[in-house]
Structure formats: structure tokens, C-alpha cells
Specification:
single chain; about 180 residues; mainly alpha; two-stranded antiparallel sheet; 8 helices
């Protein structure tokens, strides 16, 4: 069981106890199992691509949300809407810019703003996947397997038209437009 971000253990006499946190050398010390992850007022946790797991990230996002009592506002619909809206903030930075200008953005002080926008999208994806009990790595693996069938390497390698054609079919399908009629235009 989970209690305040810490594992609960049952002793031989049936008593439940919560282990105390380990001694830390700095306030940014990373708590390892079985203590879980605490953030905010409790213990700030440094995260990086090398150290974080999806489970860690979900726990950090859940803790952040719980401390602010925001779960009441984070139903699946509103999280999904946020996942659509937040990328627009990111796109504003790219609008009317060449690849060279975009690369320079990532080499400038604006990089932090761009990373913040990307983090907003990630936060919402983590919250939605937690809310719906979605196994992100498993879902990605399953989707990539499907895409491998749709886009075999021999046919799709370096072929943008394959991707574009599939996107057009997808849009037409969801707009209830018959692809065969559009193909005759």
C-alpha cells in the first residue's frame, strides 16, 4: 500500500508501520525504494533523462497535483483538452521560422521557455495516463508494432508521401469524407 508516498509494511504481529526517510546529505537527495518520491514541500527531487522513469514522472506529477488539490479539475476530458491546447503554446515559438532560426532558439536563453512548453505537454500526458491507468511504455510498444505493419521499412523508408497519404486518409475518415471521391478530384 501507499501512504504519503511511502510504502507501508506489515510486521509479523500485523502492525502497520511506515519507514522513516533515509538521512540525506542535501535537500536534493534522490529517495530510492522503498521510500518513493516526494516533491514540493517535502523533498525536491532532481530529474533527468538518465535517472527518471515514467513511473517516477507519474509520481512527481501526481504529487504536484495532490498538494494543490487539483485532481478535482483534472478529469480525463479536461486533461485531453489540455493535451491539445498546450502544443499550440509551443508552436507559437516555431511559427514563421526557418529550421536555422529554430535551431538558434534552442541555443539561446529562449530554450528554457521552449522546454517549459514541452514539459507542460508531458505533464498533461502523464496525468491523463495516470488517471486512465494507461501503461505508457506498453502502449507505445503496441502502437509501434501496429505502425511497423502499416509502414514496413522497405516501403516507407524515406517516403514522406506514405506518411502524408495516411494522414489525409485519417482526417477524411474522421470528417466522414469518402476517400475514393476525393481521389477522383
Amino acid at each position: 500500500m501507499r501512504n504519503g508516498g511511502r510504502n507501508r509494511h506489515t510486521g509479523s504481529a500485523g502492525r502497520v508501520f511506515v519507514p522513516s526517510p533515509p538521512a540525506r546529505e542535501s535537500p536534493l537527495a534522490l529517495w530510492g525504494p522503498p521510500h518513493g518520491i516526494l516533491v514540493g514541500r517535502n523533498v525536491p527531487m532532481p530529474l533527468s533523462d538518465r535517472s527518471a522513469t515514467i513511473a517516477n514522472l507519474k509520481a512527481v506529477a501526481a504529487s504536484f497535483t495532490a498538494e494543490r488539490d487539483w485532481d478535482q479539475f483534472h478529469d480525463a476530458k479536461d486533461l485531453a483538452i489540455g493535451i491539445v491546447i498546450e502544443p499550440a503554446d509551443l508552436l507559437q515559438h516555431f511559427r514563421f521560422k526557418s529550421d536555422t532560426q529554430i535551431q538558434k532558439l534552442f541555443e539561446s536563453p529562449k530554450r528554457t521557455e521552449l522546454e517549459d512548453e514541452i514539459a507542460d505537454v508531458l505533464f498533461l500526458l502523464l496525468r491523463l495516463s495516470t488517471r486512465l491507468d494507461c501503461d505508457l511504455p506498453g502502449s507505445l510498444e503496441r502502437k509501434l508494432a501496429k505502425n511497423s505493419g502499416h509502414y514496413p521499412v522497405k516501403r516507407a523508408r524515406g517516403q514522406e508521401h506514405q506518411v502524408r497519404r495516411t494522414l489525409v486518409r485519417w482526417v477524411l475518415k474522421y470528417e466522414n469524407i469518402d476517400f475514393a471521391v476525393v481521389g477522383q478530384l
